[in-house]
Amino acid sequence: MTIRKIIVLCMSFVIALGLCACSGEKEMKKVSDLAYDEADSINYIYIMENGKYTPFLVLTDDYNGNTLLLRKEILDENRRINNYSAYYANSEIDLYLNEEYLKSLTEISQYIIQSKVEITSEDALGASGLDIEMIDRCVFLLSCNEVGISDSVNIAPEGEMLEYFRNEENRKAYFNEDLSSWWLRTPNTYYLSCSYVIGDNNKLGFTNSYDQNGIRPAVCVEGDMKIELKSGIVADQMVYVFSFEN
Q: 49: closest CA among 98, 94, 108?
């Protein structure tokens, strides 16, 4: 190889390195790389749900040491929390998420981690109590605290605030491009049967546990799960999916 060719190759390599540095883009190899508190940007991982890919927000890489994912959009079917009581553990919504819904996550279900989730204790209901307890769940709803709302004497301190929700606009959720209300797991402890929701006006409210509201399931996976870019899911885009190849 001539000296001239060597110089040209070296210059090309330097230019390529410069372009990579200028782009500021970090190579994403594992799901925790996409986390909002790491990347400081909104990133999605597409998960197979009922046979089709669905986008999930990657909220944090430190939810009890794991990576927390939240469904971007509202599920097709609104549901109630329970027939009366707003106590979350083993409520209708809790059982639905960890049985029927979990089975719909065909590819990823075996990789979902049972997370320790703080909930309001049953004794706190109807007494403006603030006592909390811990349950283990694969799929769960977010809490008032986690979406950045804790300014009420009737909200028990369930979980830690997620950085993503420091921007109140990020609480908005949609169904078929229309703003929709969505359940939180937090009850209003002044009552026995009322749970909090993010309304379709993006404000915090509460309704009877037997009312119908939207659902945004949250799950955790290990942060080092491999990801890859894939085409053919969103038109003219490459999006991240989990890579299950060894």
A: 108
Contact 47, 53 (CB under 8 A): yes
The H-or-E segment that residue 7 falls in is helix 3-23
Sequence-ordered list of residues with C-beta below 8 angstroms from that of 179, at least 6 positions apart, any chain = 172, 173, 200, 201, 202
Rounded average pLDDT over 192-209: 96
Residue 218's H or E segment, with its range, is strand 218-221
What six digits make up the tokens of 239?
């999006």
Residue holding tokens 């078929």?
176
What digits encode the pLDDT tens for the residues 180-194? Answer: 999 999 999 999 999
Helix (H, G, I), strand (E, B) or coil at 2: coil
SS (H, E, C) 95-134: HHHHHHHHHHCCCCHHHCECEEEEEECHHHCCCCCCCEEE
Cα gap 127→83, rounded to integer Å: 20
CA distances from 102 to 49, 77, 111, 130 (A): 9, 15, 11, 30
pLDDT on residue 133: 98
pTM over 0.85: yes
Split at pLDDT 50, 70, 90, the class of 26 is low
For the stretch 113-160, pLDDT in tens is: 999 999 999 999 999 999 999 999 999 999 999 999 988 899 999 999
Question: Tell me, what's the pLDDT at 141?
Answer: 98
Residue with tokens 């929700």: 165
Q: Name the residue among 204, 83, 98, 77 with its Cα closest to residue 141.
A: 98
All residues at 6 or more sequence positions from 23 whose CB lies less than 8 Å from its CB, including other chains: none
Q: Dihedrals φ, ψ of 62, to 5°?
A: -140, 60
